[in-house]
Prior knowledge:
Blueprint: H1 27-33, H2 37-43, H3 48-54, E1 59-62, E2 64-66, E3 70-77, E4 82-89, E5 95-98, H4 105-108, E6 122-132, E7 135-148, E8 151-165, E9 176-179, H5 193-199, E10 207-211, E11 221-224, E12 237-240, E13 243-244, E14 247-256, E15 259-262, E16 267-271, E17 278-280, H6 282-291, E18 295-296, E19 302-303, E20 315-319, E21 322-326, H7 328-331, E22 332-334, E23 340-342, E24 344-346, E25 355-357, H8 359-362, E26 365-370, E27 375-380
Parallel strand pairs: 4-9, 5-8, 16-25, 17-24
Antiparallel strand pairs: 1-11, 2-3, 3-4, 3-7, 5-9, 6-7, 7-8, 10-11, 10-26, 12-27, 13-14, 14-15, 14-16, 14-20, 17-25, 18-19, 20-21, 22-23, 26-27
Amino acid sequence: MRWIGFLSLVALSECLVTIPLTKIKSMRESLREKDLLTDYLQRHPYSHAYRFLSGEGVTVHPMRNFLDLYYVGTISIGTPPQEFKVIFDTGSADLLVPSIYCSSPICVTHRTFDPRASSTFQSTDQPIELPYGSGKVTGRLGYDDVRIGDLVCKSQAFGLSWLELSLSLEFTAYDGILGLAYPALALRNTTPVFDSMWNQGLISENLFAFYLSSNEKNGSVVMFGGVDPSYYRGELQWVPVSEQGYWQVTVDSISMDSKVVACADSCQAFMDTGTSLVIGPTNSVLNILRNISAQNTSTSWYVVSCEAIHSLPDIVFTINGVAYPVPASAYIRREQTGICYPNLDTDTSDSSSLWVLGDAFLRLYFTVFDRANNRIGLAPVIA
């Protein structure tokens, strides 16, 4: 954050009788159609039904959509388990939660980890300092068992914050962050959570995937160890990772109405589930804002006519030769005040040329993060 289960059919040879088969909806499919799947998984996280829905070697973990701003799932740390709500963030690589030793106002409004209450906690004297787009966190490194659904990572490294410098985090609906980027971004000499899953033999495939729901709907999930094809249409299109830190790829171009508006000579971008917007270099984003007639306000926020949403062109990201259109209904958000804002922002950090494809993009495309082959798979979500 900068701020399968699948059904296998066994063919029986030498059968003397042919029986017509009728497709029966699975329990998961029925719950999803009624928008009840996330609530069910949250109420029965460790039941046999949950493992059936997940599939052998695959864990499907529910997340809640908060106003299309971020997606939060529940994990637990320690023995007995202490629960925390976290963002599963592909833009960072560390697990971080507040500790009881944190004196910041942010920690007062969130759950805090008590090392004294866990029989499996291992302390260290290693200090940590983690910069995030929304602030800076300092604290200490510790080790304990981390549970995500039916997965338990033994002796997992994680950060316990003692000081959190960000007013914007004080009233968030999540306590911490669980990073899913490459180990290159992790704290020195630590193993990130996903790498622990694989190293400890908890998952059958060295990958994870995201389905992000829209407009506060239920059903958002992160899945570890496999891919459920019922969440997307067509075939996954694979994109090689260009640099193994962030989940970074090469973008061929960015266009509107068949005209290139940014990234004319290709550029770099990374998929970030911990960022709500699409972020890019200042000049490129301003060019797109001009193309949609966005107006700057006295607060420096850009606004767009809500009536224009249905007539504005798609922003098309061409990646590895495949076009990924983002319609105006996705790159513009309507607030309760009736004002419409672009889901676009400029990168103010050291004139970075990187693009960040956040949730505004990822809600449209089921995304597979394949560590085994260092690639990302994309396919349109099933609405």
